[in-house]
């Protein structure tokens, strides 16, 4: 039995055999072969090495012809690795002695090799990891050939294990036979985590080297509440987790019955529960979970799934689908929040050194006005189809908000000239996600129709902790006293100015923070649709007076650990069986 720890993304327990993906999202097949297959697999290995070396030589020649010999030399190291008899022998030994398939043996040795480079402190040598990954990819492509298996055709329910998953792959997992997910990288509010949460399956990420420790076909338990991945569980552990699964299924059945009940505290305070969506079709799923509307539509996923920027018609179609899916309920469309970990990096020739502090979000849109205007036109045209509100992300200064609004007015003028209809009084709000915006909240309330607090970013900027980096995940803490005080001040300022205030970071969907946020005065929560029933259950179990007591006490602590422990205790008293 091997226990790995990581960061919980989605609660619950999943038990199944693992399906392991390599860095190109290829599935690495099961590891064992029979004794009779050994010679054939060794031959496949020989062919694979031969073909890979040949490919590299051709590429070297082509590059050298075009760019000169120095440029072609980048492949010399790759050829050297493939010609290294030790590496080839190590792979062959695994096939002969351990009866590994050629693909699995290649992957095992190349990953060991990668781990060796990861441990090197010399940055030049550490850079070699990418080369090793590249070699692994090439070998696997040649070893698997046409037999590459695709996730959508998994014949049995599985646990997906990978280094990372791209947004498009995460988005397609809903159609695959996947019960749970375990990844090497990521933080609790990274965008991969957000997509996995939307999927609703138990998931643990940031588990460092799970993808090199687990093999296709291994029995795996993903404990999304205990932040653990257990490979090869023994009988006792398996029984323990099967019992937990039965408890969670019972809780889930109870939660379904809450769908049409009001989200109101026992003393009658009505709370608005909204859904966060990444794809337009999810709007209907939010309504299905009992959402009062859509509090955050992350439109950038339209961009990230496509090869290039989506045109006006494509965007209009997506917004129309989301508006229709929300069935008359309000919907907040957020303009593209590109940059940082949302992959414009890959498309940029020169990568940013510090992308979280770089050209991201509204800054990116304001520097790409043509693209921004296309989006604003599409939203404006869709604004007549329902109760549509517009929101700008990462607003840090008043100037930025004003500039974004000016661009919106330009788009309105263009539409007027073209005699296309739109709602001229569509509400325009902002996301409050930086300490600067929090400190200037009062000024903002004079200019915006509403504020939505984006704690995922606000916490990273307040605490100076990259939200997507598993190495600093333990410092990313929503219960830090500085976070609590900032939230208190922002919510209070908005209430005083009578500007609607919601919170749409992942914090809103975690029952651990529900009492605290209620007590801070928050009345609108926006979250992954899968979290709505549980948060509603907790709201219905408490009184506002109790939540306010919890908040007062939370604000007296000096450290984040004291706050977390206290919140866990008071929440468990109300939800003794639920995974918190
Ligand atoms: C946030 O930062 O809290 C937020 C909701 O936006 P995103 O997670 O898309 O950055
Ligand atoms: Mg954000």
Termini separation comes to 25 Å
CATH class of the largest domain: Alpha Beta
Largest sheet: 9 strands, mixed
| Beta-strand percent range | 5-15%
In summary, what is this structure?
With 580 residues, this protein is α/β, with parallel strands linked by helices. It is built from 26 helices and 17 strands.
Overall description:
With 580 residues, the protein is of the alpha/beta class. It has 3 domains: 2-23 and 154-252, Phosphohistidine domain (Glucose Oxidase, domain 1); 35-144, Enzyme I, Chain A, domain 2, CATH 1.10.274; 271-528, Phosphoenolpyruvate-binding domains (TIM Barrel, Alpha-Beta Barrel), CATH 3.20.20.60. Helices cover 49% and strands 13% of the residues. It contains 26 helices and 17 strands. Strands 1, 2, 3, 4, 5, 6, 7, 8 and 9 form a 9-stranded mixed beta sheet that branches. It is globular. The structure holds phosphoenolpyruvate and magnesium ion. Magnesium ion (MG) binds at residues 393, 433, 454, 456-457.
Helix-strand blueprint:
Elements: E1 2-5, E2 7-10, E3 13-21, E4 27-28, H1 38-67, H2 69-72, H3 76-83, H4 85-98, H5 102-118, H6 123-126, H7 128-144, E5 158-162, H8 167-172, E6 178-183, H9 191-199, E7 203-205, H10 210-213, E8 219-223, E9 228-231, H11 235-256, E10 272-277, H12 282-288, E11 294-298, H13 300-305, H14 312-325, E12 331-334, H15 344-347, H16 361-367, H17 369-382, E13 388-392, H18 398-417, E14 428-432, H19 435-439, H20 441-445, E15 451-453, H21 455-463, H22 481-497, E16 501-503, H23 514-519, E17 524-527, H24 532-541, H25 544-554, H26 560-574
Parallel strand pairs: 3-5, 5-6, 6-7, 10-11, 10-17, 11-12, 12-13, 13-14, 14-15, 15-16
Antiparallel strand pairs: 1-9, 2-7, 3-4, 3-8, 8-9
Helix pairs in contact: 1-3, 1-4, 1-7, 4-5, 5-7, 12-14, 14-17, 17-18
The structure holds phosphoenolpyruvate and magnesium ion.
């Amino acid at each position: 039995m091997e226990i790995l720890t990581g960061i919980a993304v989605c609660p619950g327990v999943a038990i199944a055999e693992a399906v392991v993906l390599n860095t190109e999202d290829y599935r690495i097949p099961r590891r064992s072969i029979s004794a009779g297959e050994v010679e054939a697999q060794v031959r496949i290995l020989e062919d694979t090495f031969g073909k890979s070396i040949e490919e590299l030589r051709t590429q070297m020649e082509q590059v050298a012809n075009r760019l000169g010999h120095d440029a072609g030399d980048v492949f010399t190291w790759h050829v050297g690795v493939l010609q290294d008899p030790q590496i080839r022998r190590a792979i062959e030994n695994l096939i002969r002695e351990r009866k590994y398939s050629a693909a699995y043996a290649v992957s095992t040795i190349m990953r060991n090799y990668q781990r060796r480079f990861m441990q090197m402190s010399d940055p030049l040598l550490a850079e070699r990891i990418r080369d090793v990954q590249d070699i692994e990819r090439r070998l696997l492509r040649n070893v698997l050939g046409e037999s590459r298996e695709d996730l959508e055709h998994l014949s049995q329910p599985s646990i997906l294990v990978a280094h990372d998953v791209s947004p498009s792959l995460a988005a397609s997992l809903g159609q695959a036979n996947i019960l749970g997910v375990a990844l090497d990288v990521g933080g609790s509010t990274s965008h991969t985590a957000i997509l996995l949460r939307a999927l609703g399956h138990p998931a643990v990420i940031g588990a460092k080297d799970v993808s090199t420790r687990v093999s296709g076909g291994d029995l795996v338990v993903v404990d999304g509440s205990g932040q653990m991945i257990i490979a090869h569980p023994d009988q006792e552990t398996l029984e323990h987790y099967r019992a937990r699964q039965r408890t969670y299924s019972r809780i889930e059945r109870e939660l379904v019955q809450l769908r049409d009940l009001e989200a109101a505290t026992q003393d009658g305070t009505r709370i608005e529960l909204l859904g966060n969506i990444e794809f337009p079709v999810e709007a209907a799923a939010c309504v299905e979970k009992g959402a009062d509307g859509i509090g955050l539509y992350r439109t950038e996923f339209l961009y990230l799934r496509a090869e290039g920027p989506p045109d006006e018609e494509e965007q209009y179609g997506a917004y129309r689908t989301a508006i229709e899916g929300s069935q008359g309920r309000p919907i907040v469309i957020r303009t593209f929040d590109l940059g940082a970990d949302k992959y414009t990096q890959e498309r940029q020739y020169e990568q940013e050194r510090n992308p979280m502090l770089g050209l991201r979000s509204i800054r990116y849109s304001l520097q790409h006005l043509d693209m921004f205007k296309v989006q604003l036109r599409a939203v404006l045209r869709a604004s007549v189809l329902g109760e549509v509100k517009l929101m700008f992300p990462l607003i840090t200064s008043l100037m930025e908000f004003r500039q974004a609004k000016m661009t919106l007015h330009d788009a309105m003028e263009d539409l007027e000239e073209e005699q296309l209809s739109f709602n001229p009084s569509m509400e325009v709000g902002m996301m409050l996600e930086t300490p600067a915006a929090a400190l200037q909240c009062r000024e903002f309330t004079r200019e915006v129709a509403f504020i939505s607090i984006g704690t995922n970013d606000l916490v990273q900027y307040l605490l100076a902790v990259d939200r997507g980096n598993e190495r600093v995940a333990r410092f990313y803490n929503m219960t830090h006293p500085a976070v609590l005080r900032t939230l208190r001040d922002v919510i209070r300022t908005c209430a005083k100015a009578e500007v609607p205030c919601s919170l749409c970071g992942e914090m809103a969907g975690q029952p651990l923070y529900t009492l605290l946020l209620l007590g801070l005065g928050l009345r609108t929560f926006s979250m992954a649709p899968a979290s709505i029933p549980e948060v509603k259950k907790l709201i219905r179990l408490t009184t506002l007076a109790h939540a306010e007591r919890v908040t007062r006490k939370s604000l007296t602590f000096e450290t984040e650990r004291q706050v977390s422990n206290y919140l866990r205790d008071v929440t468990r008293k109300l939800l003794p069986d639920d995974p918190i």
